[in-house]
Amino acid sequence: MKRQLRFREDGTFKIVQFADVEFSNSQAEEEINMSAMMRHILESEKPDLVVYTGDVIASGGSTDVAQLFRNAVAVPEELEIPWAVVFGNHDSEAANMTREQLHALQLAHRFSYAKPDPPLVDGVGNYVLTIHDKHNDPAAALYFLDSGSYSPLEYSRLGFYDWIRRSQINWYVDQSYQLTAQNGGQPLPSLAFFHIPLPEYNDIWDFSVCYGQRQDYGCSAPWINTGFFAAMVEMGDVMGTFVGHDHGNDFWGTLHGIRLCYGRTTRNAYLDRPFMTGARVIQLSEGVRAFDTWLHLADGSILREQPAHMPEGRKLTN
Length: 318
Prior knowledge:
Elements lengths: L11 E7 L10 H17 L3 E5 L11 H8 L1 H6 L3 E4 L12 H10 L18 E6 L5 E7 L21 H17 L7 E4 L6 H8 L2 E2 L16 H8 L2 E6 L8 E4 L2 E5 L15 E8 L5 E7 L4 E2 L4 E2 L9
Helix pairs in contact: 5-7
Protein name: Metallophosphoesterase family protein
Pfam family, one: Metallophos
Organism: Paenibacillus alba
């Protein structure tokens, strides 16, 4: 049985987010160097949990998808640090291993803290973890959701990427209600992790003050808005969301009290300009409805203050 996630004696709980590591060839020098960087970050930060926010592997064309996944999670597994995964669009592109089989492989690892899927909920790898206080009561919650792969309506020109489905939103609301009731009617301070950004990520960049960079052409959000953000606002528990997917984006901004955050790509960002890889670090404090976050870059530098971006509005397109 796995140990319950708990706040430390000093009242903190630290998470390292790895984004888009996309393991595809364990012999490649780039992946060897990336694994070394990941190890250095974890040994330096000493987190209580590691979260991979999708595209853990680039599975398309691989003949041994399972080994790619093992390679991707080897560092926290070897360091005996609890870890969890949500899947992205590149994780299940191979014909020889399904998303369900990948999730079963995740569950089989000793230090994976993922949970089996709830019944009758879309996607693979939807679960919630609680962080307990010194009295062994749940004091914070972490939601993990499968944001899917590619738009099932692409043939009708409704975007390219998938979206969080209504059954998943209903599942989240049910979990939130239960945790709130157990906490005397007070919503637990919570975070949510998934791969593909919500449409609201484009909204905060265009219309709010944000902090960080948008090196990609935009936010590759789905064209369909199923209302997950509205559900989080209504439930009042989620303080921040964390995604990957867009390798050149690392910004965050606040909308209706929720901080929408990108990680920092852990693999080369495929850009034609410098953009150092690394990880996002998130720290919760027991009994506090807030969190701190910073970037830990490949060269060992810590970036606590990201540059401000003033809203520029949105240009109309044909």
